[in-house]
Amino acid sequence: MRETSKRTAALEAILLVGGQGTRLRPLTLNTPKPLLPTAGVPFLAHQLAKARAYGVRRVVFATSYRASMFAEAFGDGSAFGLEIIYMTEETPLGTGGAIRNAGEALSCPPDAPVLVLNGDILSGHDIGAQLDLHVSRDAAVTLHLTEVDDASRFGCVPTEPDGRVSAFLEKMADPVTNRINAGCYVFRRAVIDSIPAGQVVSVERETFPSLIEAGALVLGYADASYWLDVGTPAAFVQGSADLVLGKLSSPALPGGTGERLLLDGAVVSPEAKVTGGTVVGARAVVEAGASVRGSVLSDESVIASGATVVDSVVGVGAKVAAGAVLRGVVVGDGAHIGPGNELTSGVRIWPGVSLPECSVRFSSDV
Question: Is residue 26 reached through a cis peptide bond, with omega within 30 degrees of 0 on the bond before it?
Answer without folding.
Answer: yes
